[in-house]
């Protein structure tokens, strides 16, 4: 049985706790941090970090799946069941709805200030920190027609939309008041430091660097932009790409690939570089222009490179399908680009040459398995995608994870002089 949604925690209590958490964060800002920034800079930084994204359920993109199952009818009193003290299983059908949503993934569990006594039921599958999918299921005996399923679908989706609107109203009110709360907290922190005599003067002596080198840490690639505070002194840091950030980038590439396949006529005429630029523009929409085309790396050039503080965070190659040998060479090219900090990368291959795309797709695992530097295949988690661990170029002791996409654009238009294999 799915859980009741919008019933776990009162939303007003969550928002009040968020304000208290914000006040604690401001109250812990060091004198060096306070002295290095103006009130407006601090307020902009804190507001961007504590603003909550409202809930939006995209019911128009709901997907449904069917499965046969067993249904317990021992409590169905319109049926002839002689012993209701134990389960009575009959053959049935189960319909499962997958409803995508954006916003804070905790919001579908919180009770807004306006609600009704018949909320929808479901489970939440988070995807990162700004969205996910609401999954709802209903199982009925096989002799029940589609009318009850359709009625249930309508009720559930209407309930989701209504509660999401009530939730968003509360969140918008919170966000509109947030700056006033933050500004008051900043003023209180300055007053506290001045009273203690701990606030540094504007012309302070240079701050000393902390002893000890920092440990390597994942690159912060937030799904929303948090304005940074001026730093008293930058500390050299070594970075590696976190697993969640890697999956988030792949999600963007996956969405773009499906957009290509949904409207192939708009893209099949584009060349390799033009297709790359479309993907690049989409990435820039998520990472504030941190993606750059043709950026030099350790060896050669990359098609897409996302950097953080002038260091590569993610490297990808974009290629047209020109046969198994070219596919293997593209993997080699990626393995040769990467420095020792880079362990995750992607290869996007567009097909405009092979008419039998199904046969081509089925051949990809064999081509991957034949690569000389493959260590093991990994679960890519999506159809039409593959993932493998490969020995890095020039360093057999280091493994590189390569996630591969194959995107069908249809066959090349007549009259094109672009080479194929």
Structure in words:
The structure is a single chain. The protein is α+β, with helices and mostly antiparallel strands. It folds into two domains: 199 residues, no CATH class; 170 residues, no CATH class. Helices cover 35% and strands 25% of the residues. It contains eight helices and 17 strands. It has a seven-stranded mixed β-sheet, sandwiched between helices. Strands 1, 3, 4, 5, 7 and 8 form a six-stranded antiparallel β-sheet that branches. The protein has a two-stranded parallel sheet with strand order 2-6. A hairpin with a 6-residue loop joins strand 15 and strand 16. Helix 1 runs parallel beside helix 4 and helix 3 packs antiparallel against helix 4. The two termini are 53 Å apart.
